[in-house]
Design the sequence.
């Protein structure tokens, strides 16, 4: 009964490739997020979707394109991967209850070689 | 622009000690503040959420306080255990109904020695 799940957990790929990370939540939340945690462990918002609509885009390169087919899913597609994209990507979700408390997935460790 | 600072960056204590982790933020107009725990190679686990109208929240051995006017929050851990070893992250959410994003500090890495 995982609340927020991500696949894959690990992703190793070469520069220039295109890859996708999938996220699903079974909490019935309306809002989903993508965060990036860099090598210094600093966690920063990338995107947020509410009911399948983009509400936050934090000046992320347009090689990153989130897609929300429904409010339980938020996928992240990355084109033309670069070395600097290596990081851990976390998906999260929140609802209207509990003050909008955010619940995080286990993370996807992306390594670009 | 909201900035969140956590001090200290790392802390090592013997088992059984009570300890305090500090978090400060530059813009006091917050909607709420959330404390998380992150274990190595794992995701974030939400520990406590304090609304802007609240002063503190408690869960078991954890107590989080919020002083919005001074831009500070503390996480108090009583009777620390080796299992408490992790990185603790503080994050604030914007005011006026809450812009959806959380702004995170860089965390405090806690080690509790047996």
Sequence:
């Amino acid at each position: 009964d995982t609340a927020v799940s991500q696949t894959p957990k690990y992703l190793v790929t070469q520069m220039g490739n295109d890859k996708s990370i999938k996220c699903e939540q079974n909490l019935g939340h309306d809002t989903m997020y993508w965060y990036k945690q860099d090598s210094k462990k600093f966690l920063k918002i990338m995107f947020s979707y509410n009911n399948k609509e983009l509400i936050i885009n934090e000046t992320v390169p347009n090689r990153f394109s989130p897609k929300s087919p429904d409010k339980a899913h938020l996928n992240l597609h990355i084109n033309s991967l670069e070395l600097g994209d290596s990081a851990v990507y976390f998906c999260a979700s929140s609802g209207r209850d509990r003050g909008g408390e955010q619940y995080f997935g286990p993370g996807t460790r992306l390594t670009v070689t | 622009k909201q900035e969140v600072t956590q001090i200290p960056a790392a802390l090592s204590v013997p088992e059984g000690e009570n300890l305090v982790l500090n978090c400060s933020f530059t813009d006091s107009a917050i909607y709420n503040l959330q404390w998380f725990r992150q274990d190595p190679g794992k995701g974030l686990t939400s520990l406590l959420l304090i609304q802007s109208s609240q002063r503190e929240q408690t869960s078991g051995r954890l107590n989080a306080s919020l002083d919005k006017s001074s831009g500070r929050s503390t996480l108090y851990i009583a009777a620390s255990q080796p299992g408490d070893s992790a990185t603790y992250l503080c994050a604030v959410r914007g005011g006026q109904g809450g812009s959806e994003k959380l702004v995170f500090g860089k965390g405090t890495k806690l080690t509790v020695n047996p």
